[in-house]
Amino acid sequence: MNLIEVLISSLLLAASSAAALGVWSQAASEVAASTRLEQQADQLERLRLASHRWLIAEAGAHTLINGSCRFDVSSLSVAMDQALPAPEGTTRHLSADPHGLGLWQELEARAPQGRAVRQRRQLITPGAYGLCQP
C-alpha cells in the first residue's frame, strides 16, 4: 500500500466513524426525550389518581355550593391545591362544565421551553363521590 491509499483509507475511516457517532448521539438524545415524556405522563397520571383518592377521602360538603349538588369551583380549587400541590412543571386548572355536569380537572406538564407536552382531562362530579344527598 502506498501513502495515498493509506491517507484515503484513514480519511474514509474517520468520516464513517464521525457519522456513526452522530447517529448514536441522535439516538441517545431521542431515547432521553422519550424517557422524559414518559415520566411526565406518569407524573400526570399519579396526580390525577391522587386527586381522585383525595376527592373520595377528604372532599366534603364544604366544597359544594349551598347544599346543591354542584362543586364550588374556587373552594374546591383552593382545597385541592393545598392538599395536593402540583409538582414542578405541572399545572392544574378546574373549570365548570358548560352543561352543568360538574368540573373539568385539566392537568398539563410543560417542557422547559414552556409549551405543554402532555395533558390529562377528567370530569369530576359530586355525585360520583357520594356528596349529593337525595
What can you tell me about this protein's structure?
The chain is α+β, with helices and mostly antiparallel strands. 49% of the residues lie in helices and 18% in strands. The protein contains two helices and three strands; from the N terminus they run ααβββ. The chain has a three-stranded antiparallel β-sheet. The relative contact order is 0.13.
Number of helices: 2
Helix content: 40-55%
Query: Could you tell me the number of beta strands?
Result: 3
Strands of the widest sheet, in order across it, are: 1-2-3
Average predicted local confidence, pLDDT: 83
Uncertain regions spanning at least 5 consecutive residues: none
Summarize the structure.
49% of the residues lie in helices and 18% in strands. The chain has 134 residues and is of the alpha+beta class. It has a domain at 41-129.
Defining traits:
134 residues; 3-stranded antiparallel sheet; 49% helix; alpha+beta
